[in-house]
Amino acid sequence: MSITSQAEPLAKIRSKQMMELLASGKRIDGRDLLAQREITLERGIIEKAEGSASVTLGNTRVLVGVKIEAGEPYPDTPNQGVLTVNAEFVPLAHEFFEPGPPNENSIELARIVDRGIRESKAVDLEKLVLTPGRLVYVVFVDIYILNHDGNLVDASEYAALAALQQAKLPKVEVGEDGEVKRTGEFEKLPVVDTPISVTVAEIDGKLLVDPNLEEENMAQAKVTMTLTKDNKLCAVQKSGAGTFAFNQILECFKIAREKSSEIRRKFFEE
Amino acid sequence: MSITSQAEPLAKIRSKQMMELLASGKRIDGRDLLAQREITLERGIIEKAEGSASVTLGNTRVLVGVKIEAGEPYPDTPNQGVLTVNAEFVPLAHEFFEPGPPNENSIELARIVDRGIRESKAVDLEKLVLTPGRLVYVVFVDIYILNHDGNLVDASEYAALAALQQAKLPKVEVGEDGEVKRTGEFEKLPVVDTPISVTVAEIDGKLLVDPNLEEENMAQAKVTMTLTKDNKLCAVQKSGAGTFAFNQILECFKIAREKSSEIRRKFFEE
Amino acid sequence: MSITSQAEPLAKIRSKQMMELLASGKRIDGRDLLAQREITLERGIIEKAEGSASVTLGNTRVLVGVKIEAGEPYPDTPNQGVLTVNAEFVPLAHEFFEPGPPNENSIELARIVDRGIRESKAVDLEKLVLTPGRLVYVVFVDIYILNHDGNLVDASEYAALAALQQAKLPKVEVGEDGEVKRTGEFEKLPVVDTPISVTVAEIDGKLLVDPNLEEENMAQAKVTMTLTKDNKLCAVQKSGAGTFAFNQILECFKIAREKSSEIRRKFFEE
Amino acid sequence: MKSSRKLIDENGLRVDGRRWDELRPVKMEVGLLANANGSSYIQQGKNKIMVAVYGPKEAHPKHLGNPDRAIIRCRFHMAPFSTEERKSPAPSRREVELSKIIREALEPAVFSEYYPRSMIDVFIEVLESDGGSRCAGTMAASLALADAGIPLRDLVAACAVGKVEGQIVLDLNDVEDKEGEADMPVAVIPALGRISLLQMDGQFTEEEFAEALELAQKGCRSLYEIQKQALKQRYLPEKEALEAEEKGGK
Amino acid sequence: MKSSRKLIDENGLRVDGRRWDELRPVKMEVGLLANANGSSYIQQGKNKIMVAVYGPKEAHPKHLGNPDRAIIRCRFHMAPFSTEERKSPAPSRREVELSKIIREALEPAVFSEYYPRSMIDVFIEVLESDGGSRCAGTMAASLALADAGIPLRDLVAACAVGKVEGQIVLDLNDVEDKEGEADMPVAVIPALGRISLLQMDGQFTEEEFAEALELAQKGCRSLYEIQKQALKQRYLPEKEALEAEEKGGK
Amino acid sequence: MKSSRKLIDENGLRVDGRRWDELRPVKMEVGLLANANGSSYIQQGKNKIMVAVYGPKEAHPKHLGNPDRAIIRCRFHMAPFSTEERKSPAPSRREVELSKIIREALEPAVFSEYYPRSMIDVFIEVLESDGGSRCAGTMAASLALADAGIPLRDLVAACAVGKVEGQIVLDLNDVEDKEGEADMPVAVIPALGRISLLQMDGQFTEEEFAEALELAQKGCRSLYEIQKQALKQRYLPEKEALEAEEKGGK
């Protein structure tokens, strides 16, 4: 059951300060409304993973590992590999994260990241078939949140894309009895698009890019828009118990298009 | 672990009134001791289900859907189809129903309904074999309680039987590699008996047919007896932390035989 | 998550008494520091199990059943049978045992017993292969705690070993289609070593063999050492939120060697 | 999965005969479950969805209560027989996400601040599913809240828009949802003129996105009228009876 | 599943050599577990069942407590090695149902009203199972309650009756349970002359049902004597010792 | 599983080129996670482990609190991508055991009695695993406790020793752990000179066991120095800055 979330209450004085700054177009950490926090991205950290990357977005820190195994296709897509995205909010990352099975927040995050990758067709799943209808590559994308300071979605999305771009596909031989053996050789995982998400929060009528945790706790609503390299919108998710005006949504699109291009150029173009 | 159930307490005045009425052979909702509430039955409500039916018994309202798929037989009955009955007490139906996995009440209900259908051999499971020992039809009977005002067992049993009677069996082709494909054609599911359950509650020495929720909360014990079309007893379940005298049990049989015949004639004979 | 365990608090007067006795080399139940409680062992109690044994160690009482079925080998040991040890702390055994899935205590116990049997190679798993890589015998060792008065590990280990020694291996025929049928004949399960565990607790600098429950609640740490018939150490587990000095650990080894030989001679040599 | 089936024919008609900006037939009812404080039923295409609202009631367990407002709990759940293949009764990841999304679409419409330390439960049961079940469920849920007498800023209207063979279309059915090129569910609180649910998958250019948003607004306006009608049908007779009584009393 | 095996031979003897109205050998013991407040062990056919009772003790968590009476918690559980094929330790649907049925068979025998806000735990562990394990478990549980010193209206006696090759028979074993035509477990509280557990599957005509009920009563009467004997064996020596002491004291 | 690979070559070198008593390269860092009260990172062989400590904080739920001391909660958890084959995120039996073992290795080093009714949470996340991950995790956890400012009797140093082709060796890597003949993880609290973690599997004679224990002590001494170095690197600059400031202030 989904239940009204209890945001960490902000001290009154802090929230007053935030609102005053916002009124003059400034944010509590000194950023402009449309400025993202500094991004660092590191690829290829985990040797035992086929792909991996870590992203920091200010104090938010996310690690993504990609594992690739042979497995069965979904019955309704017998001629495609399988992509599966999972997120764990490990209790390292925040005092309020509890160990345990995925909850609605980690499930939502995984599904937003999944949607961006899937709908942009970033991974060419049709190239991941071993025996049509029987055996395909299964690509596990595991998102690990290490420190939570807001905007987990974008940090996760960037780390997932970087890990996929860096991932190597293990060549295998399939024996007569269906046994699968790795040859020891690798190819590149076929990643053919670069979906980039941009999250915008609304506070008091103002639109803020890349909200930090304090801002998320003040915001009524956020929206994440993911764009392909051709600037097509491929995933949207409004989140939080608030609303957007129609023109704000169109405004968010424009912001997302601009910001995603910047990030793509800086980090994801080869 | 099973635990003494906390019945919703009845207001003192209400329970006193109920006892006084009972003493003069009347019930709180005006019925005679042996009168059932009005039954309405509607078949074929859910297009995506192979069979479906809804039953109202006074304010008690139950929906049953039947899904039929190909699957493996049980190892000890390789030449029979599989019948499986499941009940969900969805929280729509009563303030005290919590979302979650089946509890002892929903499991007991499902098993009583299952027993009636199975022991009467109402569904001819031997006609549901596709490849002996390997592949059979699996018939899922899913009971959904929509509003709970007592005697869920009988309402569920009637709805399950009606849904099975109305269910269509999808014809399939089994390929050489064991793949199963629906041909698009249908037969009737072979339903060859009409088990009808009747539930009787005991309050203060009196036997009441079809107890409503208030009566169930007052009763110490109930007994459900299910009879085949030949008036054979095929399932019994005493339920509740009370007792019956031996002669009361024999009396219950007579009541159940009479009432089940009425209901069978009215709703289940073709 | 593992959490500091809340030992049943001992009455002050009782714990003072225990400490005074210990100071003079005596224990609360009259034993010497290095004396085990009386052991009784009964084999072959459960007819439906392939092997079974019950052990009492003072008031501690454990029943072990061994079931043997055909199944798949582990992928990394295709030419070995499977051994799996499971422990249930059923609520019969102590007021503080709750029904439910295994917890860290029952898992630890099962893993210690498993380690002793596995590392001593007591069961010759290579003799338990039916079709290499495909079908092997799976040996389930289920530990059932019936009354808990301390030192569950040793009682369980002795009962497990006795049940395995007594277990009969059902002969089977494997049909062409992979179907497995019992022939009705039996062999002996190949048990080729006799690992014996000995648990020593430390209280106030003293080492006590076979602690009872009161002693376990006073002890900061215990160590279990399991020895093969050749007096080789094959499993060790320190348990509890305390420590041992290095020389104490070496002392424990000597104690374990002596005690395990006695027990092996008395109960496990044929 | 792409199929060879044509989703829009030479006359511009969709697989179920509708034009691009046409809604499916829809039926809404209010107040059918005896035990719930409020309830509703919606039928839209093959969607058959029943909603019950329990509350406002004291938050339980108490620590869930919020001193400033009612909390809302919401479950979007699909019956095992509601889908082509039997669905396991355990909540899927999709159901977990939709429960959250729908709760967040309803919350801004509820005057939660009127009921501090309380809890409002919204149970959405999909008895049969078709394209657009989250939108239908959201609309029905807002009706059930109204039926429970909970003060609302307004009802919540919702519909999906999408792209089928390059054409922006209103209110996707099952086939269009699966085989089309984009799907965007939108919920609107008409009195506020604001969007409370927005998701999208597939691909939209900027122009398509703007066009689709526009079309969704239009669809929601129509559905909103039907929602109000459902409430009227339930309460108008009562109101008229009351007024008649009052007149009679004079 | 029907087998070709004959379940009653030409001399009217059953597969284990019993006549139609004969019980299996049964052994009951009381007070074997050191930690439990009360305990018992029953062996009946291949059934081997151990029961522990903890309580009455304060209800925990407190909100479970009832101001008017003790609540009873009951678990019927089968060991993984108790069955032909290894049973998963997780409770099956059957075990969940039987836990409830047995609790409801015991409750009317307990003077729960003597212990408001308390809790009594009854743990039934089937170490080896045979036909009639729920009845054996119920009998053993009532002995363990008595052994715990909990005031009872009476013990609970229980046995199954059934139909095998058209013949009503007493106390089904495993084979008769699986291959026979009907199975009806019955529990009786002798002092009240009332039935506290009744289930049935298979098929009975009215006459067969009445005959079976009659036979069950008879079986319960015999078993009740054995139950009382088990208690006596445990407590008579104590009582005699006490009386001898009292005499000596005079 | 035994392989034909030689684990020690003719020059006495191990598969990764080390001598029998040589540790793998190890890197430890302290204080990297912004939200945690204390944190640390260790890299040892391919092990990559991050630890966060939250607390001391009020025990929650309250009934968990102990009036005499802080309770410690500990989770040893492996990321799905940390192993050769993807690991399910649900805790395995091995992780449950190791969480307990590590908690019990840390507890005797913590002055828990300073924080009655409190709770200290230790979260150990294995991002990549190699031989000896429980020892590396234990060391890192004690560093994170120190970083959180929790008073300790001492750090906890830990390493595994084992037997490979009959030779006692220090600090097993993955291959030696799997293909070797014995593995014994040991944790030591240097200031107390006592062992707080000890496990072993494989086979040791008495002499081998004594020799292995000796070698473990030696390994722990070296690692302890590196642990202290990691703390110094984090806190020395701060201390020096503070002292400089104080001097400047004079």
- What is the rounded distance between the termini of chain A? 44 Å
Oligomer: heterohexamer
Termini separation of chain D comes to 68 Å
CATH superfamily of chain A: GHMP Kinase, N-terminal domain
Strand content of chain A: 25-35%
Q: Helical region count of chain A?
A: 5
Give the SSE order of chain D as H and E letters: EEEEHEHEEHEEH
Largest sheet of chain D: 5 strands, mixed
Instruction: Provide the succession of SSEs of chain A.
Output: EHEEEEHEEHEEEEHEEEH
For the largest sheet of chain D, list the strands in their spatial order: 1-2-3-5-4
CATH class of chain D: Alpha Beta
**CATH-defined topology of chain D:** Ribosomal Protein S5, domain 2
The shape of chain D, in one word, is globular
Low-confidence stretches of chain D: none
- The total of beta strands of chain D comes to 9
Largest sheet of chain A: 6 strands, mixed
CATH architecture of chain D: 2-Layer Sandwich
Tally of discrete structural domains of chain D: 1
